[in-house]
Specification:
The protein has twelve helices and 18 strands. The protein is globular, with a radius of gyration of 23 Å. It starts with a strand and ends with a strand. The structure holds guanosine-5'-diphosphate (GDP) (2 copies).
Length: 436
């Protein structure tokens, strides 16, 4: 599992600024895709060689008693529970506030490692600014500036210090059993879907979750093929009954996506596409996992409602246009049979072997038909391409002046490779390398 860093603090201390900085290099991969939400709360980052997950808990109001704030407080507490490290952000310009003390108390009780970061300290006398925060009893305050990046690298290094470098497992074997994560925000019907899928199939094995952030793994056989479902909704076997026990957890969702080869993103057609749906979707794209989208609760919708949700999808989930969409009813068991062929297709695409001669031929044809635009007086020259990884497939293109390749041209090449190699259902990464 990847280490999880959770950002906690009252509103306006700079959590989302820090979040954006931590996830920026990854974000560049998915920058300016139409429909992609900018306001994200979970992402991946890399500190040195160590990948990590990061959760921005939003504006934590520990005293909120009802409504959306209460739900946020609940989610924050859950995230704290699941954190490997907490970064507690306070505002060095504003100084210590009563709200900070309340949050600090909670964090001290959490038994989790906490790093106290005093933000917005650019241009200030750091020792003086941070002195008053000792009172929180959370160790030495670290001065940072999220906006300017000062102290951020040291902070991340310190946060990740206890964690080793991950063993890099080369996921290239397409004979392996596909791992499928069933994910989505609360109440979209994930457990209903898992139960419906299991109701029909032969369940081979089942494990018990250790902690709340563990998902349940279920091995099953369908049409003579083996799959492992990673169930984030939480089902447990009681005799022949499968019963939902756990509810939504952001960290669990991210870990499950990381572990999977293919994610099935479940969305509620009766509710429309919410911000949280888009967050999960953006995370899947960021992780590079293959994807099948299940628009659930399709039963009982009138025609105009169906039109409405389809427009919603076009508008808000446009950046998932590489994936297959299914309109299903987990409750009425409709449309489920078609999910697995799409999972198979997405898995195959994610694991595709792309030979250097084939890739290079497609590259040369594409650049001949449509040359890379001139940038700063020079036309980038793209020479050959080879595969740099699987799940997602990575195509590495070598050439000269590759820094000048425009994003739109990169997308054109991505689209070309996708079409020629029939890579439906998987993100595809195109990277450039200067020289040979
Ligand atoms: P959040 O509510 O905790 O997520 O806070 P935001 O990241 O939205 O930041 C709140 C405000 O503080 C914004 O106006 C930011 O531009 C500003 N801010 C964030 N980090 C810094 C910093 O390092 N220095 C200064 N001067 N302002 C910052
Ligand atoms: P989860 O939180 O994503 O695991 O969602 P659940 O599986 O617990 O479902 C939430 C609610 O939606 C329950 O009341 C389900 O009965 C209902 N539900 C799930 N799938 C469908 C569906 O296909 N159609 C309709 N109408 N309701 C559904």
């Amino acid at each position: 599992m990847l280490p999880t860093i959770v950002l906690v603090g009252r509103p306006n201390v700079g959590k989302s600024t820090l979040f954006n900085r931590l996830t920026k290099s990854r974000d560049a991969l998915v920058a300016d895709l139409p429909g992609l939400t900018r306001d994200r709360h979970y992402g991946r980052g890399i500190g040195g060689d160590k990948p990590f997950l990061v959760v921005d808990t939003g504006g934590f109001e520990p005293t909120a008693e009802s409504g959306i704030l209460k739900e946020m407080a609940r989610q924050t507490l859950l995230a704290i529970d699941e954190a490997d490290v907490i970064i507690f952000l306070v505002d060095g310009r504003q100084g210590l506030t009563p709200q900070d003390k309340v949050i600090g108390d909670r964090l001290r009780k959490s038994q989790r490692p906490v790093l106290l970061a005093v933000n917005k300290t650019e241009g200030m006398q750091r020792a003086i600014v941070s002195a008053e925060f000792h009172e929180l009893g959370l160790g030495d305050p670290l001065s940072i500036s999220s906006a300017h990046g000062e102290g951020v690298r040291d902070l991340v290094e310190l946060a990740l210090e206890p964690f080793g470098e991950p063993e890099r497992e080369e996921i290239s074997n397409s004979d392996r059993v596909p791992m499928i994560a069933i994910v989505g925000r609360p109440n979209v019907g994930k457990s209903t879907l898992v139960n419906a899928l299991l109701g029909e199939e032969r369940v081979i094995a089942f494990d018990e979750p250790g902690t709340t952030r563990d998902s349940i793994h279920i091995d099953l056989e369908r049409g003579g093929k083996h799959y492992t479902l990673i169930d984030t909704a939480g089902v447990r076997k009681r005799g022949r009954v499968f019963e939902a026990i756990e509810k939504f957890s952001v960290v669990k969702t991210m870990q499950a996506i990381e572990e999977a080869n293919v994610a099935i993103l479940v969305v509620d057609a009766q509710e429309g596409i919410t911000e949280q749906d888009a967050h999960v979707a953006a995370y899947i794209l960021d992780s590079g996992r293959a994807l099948v989208v299940a628009i659930n609760k399709w039963d009982g919708l009138k025609d105009d409602e169906k039109d409405w949700i389809k427009r919603e999808i076009d508008r808000k989930l446009q950046f998932l246009d590489f994936a297959k969409f299914h309109y299903i009813s987990a409750l009425k068991n409709k449309g489920l049979a078609e999910l697995f062929p799409s999972v198979d297709g997405a898995f195959k695409a994610a694991m595709a072997k792309l030979s250097t001669p084939q890739l290079t031929r497609v590259l040369i044809e594409a650049t001949t038909q449509h040359q890379p635009p001139i940038s700063k007086g020079i036309r980038p020259k793209l020479r050959y391409a080879h595969q740099g990884g699987s799940n997602p497939p990575i195509v590495i293109i070598h050439g000269n002046h590759v820094d000048g390749v425009k994003d739109s041209y990169k997308r054109f090449l991505e689209g070309t490779f996708r079409k020629v190699f029939q890579l439906t259902g998987t993100p595809l990464r195109v990277q450039f390398k200067q020289g040979n």
